[in-house]
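Sequence only, no structure available. Ideas?
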Amino acid sequence: EERLRNKRNPALLHQILRQTVLHPLCKKYPPSVKYRRIFLSELIKKHEMGGAEPLDELYDALGEVLRSEDSLMCYKNYFLLSGENITLAENVAIISEGTTGLVTWEAALYFAEWAMENPGIFNCRTILELGSGIGLAGIA
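Reply:
I predicted one. Tokens follow.
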């Protein structure tokens, strides 16, 4: 964030765009329109706070998002330490048909990270995952 505000370096912004909203995985399985809109708006704000000239690619990406139709389904992409990724389809309405499932709970993110760092705890064990939202912890 500091580098973004203090440097007028379009290469840094291009790198951020390529690794986020312009990443092939994000193009194929996009996060919610709201998330992408907020992300790009904040990126533009931080870029311009340093007095830098507007960057066309940022506004092009934001324009593309603003033209997108909002949907109840979106995707979350998780990159594992192994280099592989997990993509989950989520319902942006947190309560779906009377349940609080179909979303990745923040606790699942922490648990999945911890489980991947401590695989020995799960060796030779059978684990039943109940009430786990969309199931990220079980997949990890």
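The first strand starts at residue 73 and ends at 79.
Hope that gets you unstuck.
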